[in-house]
Amino acid sequence: MSSTAGQVIRCKAAVAWEAGKPLVMEEVEVAPPQAMEVRVKILFTALCHTDVYFWEAKGQTPLFPRIFGHEAGGIVESVGTGVTDLKPGDHVLPVFTGECKECRHCKSEESNMCDLLRINTDRGVMLNDGKSRFSIKGKPIYHFVGTSTFQ
């Protein structure tokens, strides 16, 4: 795997420009991961009814343009500062429910619903800085549950 750490990369992604409209394959710029973030080269992804539900903008505040997808497998391409559990080349499954490892849920053996990193379908940006890591010609493309695996 070539070293693209710290650089903007380009990849193809299925972008939803509007609710319910066909996805469009686009070349997307992907910013480097920031502190405690991981950039993953997606090798396999799948369509889930949850993606379709939000793509059709049912039951939530529509946020477009957006890259959907939350079920995938891939390889770590690069990591941000502070990431110690993963390294480039590791095989991973992106998970939309992160773990801070400190809250009562993360320390529990019965729950994985982190107080800090709960599922938020309306956010569309990263927690660290409130920005998207995806863009097309400078225009932000929003995330979906922190994974956006349709790329």
From TrEMBL:
Residues 36-118 form the Alcohol dehydrogenase-like N-terminal domain. Keywords: Cytoplasm, Metal-binding, NAD, Oxidoreductase, Zinc. It catalyses: a primary alcohol + NAD(+) = an aldehyde + NADH + H(+); a secondary alcohol + NAD(+) = a ketone + NADH + H(+). Its EC number is 1.1.1.1. It is an enzyme of class 1 (oxidoreductase). It is found in: Cytoplasm. Homodimer. This is alcohol dehydrogenase.
